[in-house]
Amino acid sequence: MAPAAFKHWRLWAALAGFLLLMLAGTSPVVHAWDVSVTTWLQHAAPGPDLPASLFVFLGNAEVVVPATVLAAAWAFRRDRRRAMAGLWLAAGLILASLTAVALKHLVFHPGPPREFQRTVLEFGIHVRTRYSFPSGHTLRTTILAGVALHQARWAAGLIILAMMVALVYLGDHWTSDVLGGLCLGWAALEAGNALSTARSQSYPRG
Which helix (H) or strand (E) holds 61? Predict the structure, then answer.
């Protein structure tokens, strides 16, 4: 009972963090902190615009979702169960992307102004949204890395952190945006783990 209770505690903690960031994101204190972090990061690393843009492009929905589907198709002959898990992951990534877009229309949280934006790659699918919270790239990266690298959490953490830093450095998002995406992705992972555990207990193997 203790491990299950702990997992549920992590789920509620992730959701609480997301809600806190959503509600506090427009406060003067948080906005000043967002501006300070972006300004410091762009001055501390004034050169890697192209590498950061390429890395962020790899987190686009039109890249991540098809790549996940192709990986699932490749695994189908060898391990159908893993292939189906990959297809479910792709569906989850689509749902996560749509959720992020919807929230960016609903949650009042203006993104960085033009003077902070340093993106050098403009190709790809860009859905115009009114606001910038939460970061869909961070949300997708957290889910994908959390699932694909669940046995190497340090690697998953490094990839997620790199995506967050790149997004803030390029002026695509504020720090509060990427933290919101991180919390929402974490909540999605915990909810998925809870559902998987409940399903395995209801339908034991054998």
Answer: helix 61-75
